[in-house]
Amino acid sequence: MSVRKILRMGDPLLRQVSEPVTEDEIQTKEFKKLLKDMFDTMRHAEGVGLAAPQIGILKQIVVVGSEDNERYPGTPDVPDRVILNPIITPLTSESSGFWEGCLSVPGMRGYVERPNRIRMQWMDEKGNKFDETIDGYKAVVYQHECDHLLGVLYVDRLKDTKLFGFNDTLDSGGKILD
């Protein structure tokens, strides 16, 4: 198990745009080790997803996967998946709000509204290309993680800065405790 350091908000690498992954890169041992390290790091931190910029790698790589995540009780499982060079297109102007957290903004949550139905095109770690319509919680997770590839953090998308706070100050529904 190889757990990498997760960069925190304020690190300038988190605000840079990542480069696409080439098909030649995915053939290397270094790339395969990086993916394993990303999954190890995500699970160790009890995350639902992790983007390569969060560990200082400016490449368009996202890993997701979660079952019964204690940080987000009552949310559906997210199957393990490697997402390379994603393109996200909103399919509706309707949005859903969710109390998001981030491994790069530890101990805090904020209310973010995102399109609740998206089209996502990407490549996996074997070079297979995908084109799917995704909705609900999974759409939130994918949009959140893919934002990192553009140098965007969820705090940039807060609905209202009053709907942002420390986990131990918010109730289980995300509302600020009195």
TrEMBL record:
Family annotation (SUPFAM superfamilies)? Peptide deformylase
Q: Which residues bind Fe cation?
A: C102, H144, H148
Q: Which residues form the active site?
A: E145
A single GO BP term for this record reads: translation
Any Pfam family the entry gives = Pep_deformylase
Keyword tags: Hydrolase, Iron, Metal-binding, Protein biosynthesis
Family, per the entry? Answer: Belongs to the polypeptide deformylase family.
| Biological role stated in the UniProt entry | Removes the formyl group from the N-terminal Met of newly synthesized proteins. Requires at least a dipeptide for an efficient rate of reaction. N-terminal L-methionine is a prerequisite for activity but the enzyme has broad specificity at other positions.
Put simply, this protein is called Peptide deformylase
Q: Which gene holds the coding sequence for this protein?
A: def
